[in-house]
Design a protein that fits this description.
Length: 168
């Protein structure tokens, strides 16, 4: 379970992947420059799970790995370290991605006409799909009518504005 005053690095790791990520993030904060074996030992997770999590966090630029030679075993290992300073950048990049997706959806809503039969269990369709179906619902067979999407447009616009204000 995540604590209220947990480090932002740990909170982000938990949001990305849940309990296993939470354990690995806490372990990284306790022991900087830990190997994957040391992290597996301290968390109780299988080594392949720890490596999967480490590679994911590394790919998101939230940790860094330094390759060093293990003097006892004679082969190279990675020593992992959290990059707590990158948490804010990661959050901003994710907000930008979400904002871009919302904008794409709003553009789609603005550029399309939608038709619906009125049955809550049925999906709305675009004009093109409605035309192919002769304006009959493919699920229930009722006539498809033009469905206004002003509420959706307003909701997407509002969320985009909120995110833009938050990103400033």
């Amino acid at each position: 379970m995540i604590e209220k005053y947990e480090d932002p690095f740990v909170k982000i790791a938990n949001m990305i992947g849940g309990d296993e990520y939470l354990k690995v993030a806490r372990s990284l904060l306790k022991a900087q420059d830990a190997t994957d074996e040391e992290i597996a030992s301290s968390t109780g997770l299988r080594i392949n799970m720890v490596r999967k999590i480490l590679y994911d966090l590394f790919g998101k630029a939230l940790i860094t790995g330094i390759r060093v030679k293990d003097e006892r075993k004679g082969w190279f290992v990675y020593r992992w370290r959290s990059r707590k300073d990158e948490v804010e950048n990661f959050i901003e990049k994710e907000k930008k991605k979400i904002s871009d997706r919302l904008q794409q959806r709003l553009d789609y809503e603005n550029s399309s006409q939608f038709y619906h039969c009125g049955n809550d269990d049925c999906l709305r369709v675009t004009f093109e799909d409605g035309l192919e179906q002769f304006f009959k619902c493919s699920s229930c067979g009722q006539v498809l009518n033009l469905k206004k999407n002003e509420k959706s447009k307003k909701a997407f616009s509002k969320k985009i504005d909120e995110m833009k204000k938050d990103m400033r």
